[in-house]
Amino acid sequence: MSTIAASAIAVSVGTFDGVHRGHRQLLAAAARRAAAAGLPLVVLTLDRHPLSLLRPDRAPRLLTGLDHKLELLAELDGVARTEVLVFDRPRAEQEPASFLRDTLAGELGARLLVVGGNFRFGRDGAGDVSLAARLGPAAGLDVVGLPLLEEAPGAVISSSHIRRLVAAGSLAHAAELLGRPFELRGQLGHRLDGAGGGTPLTVDGQLLLPPTGAYRVRAAPLDPAEGGSLEAAAELSGGVVRLRAPDRSGGARWWHPGAALRVLFGAPAPGTASPVPPASAATSPADRASR
Predict the structure, then answer these.
(1) Distance from the CA of 129 to the CA of which of 74, 95, 99, 189 falls in 20 to 30 A?
(2) What is the share, in percent, of the chain residues with pLDDT greater than 70?
(3) Which residue segments constitute the domains of the chain, with CATH numbers given?
């Protein structure tokens, strides 16, 4: 993250895992508020889920890795740039007033903070929108808290809810809330073809996988220069992802071993999905802040 403020900005802060429809609505509203104030909008996102530091045993698998998340944020209209906040132990112990005064206003030059209504910050998640609004003026910071997007009355679109959907195999519903198909990224173990037991895809262990089963997918290299996309099958078992190209690919060369791919998931094969578990009524401040 920048250490010296070059000019005044508006900022929106969050983990933004998945960059789902709720995040995009919030950031679109933040961009409008920033434009009205004559300020560029900067998105400040965390480099990890807070629970990976505070409670590793409770840290969720993620919908998007950091690079993927930054790509999605960079695509949004009205976002001038994205800064990454390293969430380490000193940051976790920073008092709410210091975060507003020293980090947002001091280091970033923020004059306007636009966040969702569930925003939490500072040591032990002690800060919320109400506290930020009270402390903000002393730091020269206007604070705006916005309502969260709901898919139905009382049903907020959140990263944690989408994670439950993916973990249960409800990928169509997850895609609806994400605003795009669920996607995994990884590296090919060897040349992709239709033979044998499929090609292993090495996936970051922090990423969430759908449940065991067979899925229809569309795979494409992250580097467009390596070729276009193709329909394939993905088989998940024991935390291992294997890709199989259609038999009609014959002996064609589908990318090289180690190629970085994006894999967009369609519907699971019949019988592989399970019901969605209910949301837990009790969540930690860090978990609420990261939705």
Answers:
(1) 74
(2) 84
(3) 9-161 (3.40.50.620), 182-268 (2.40.30.120)
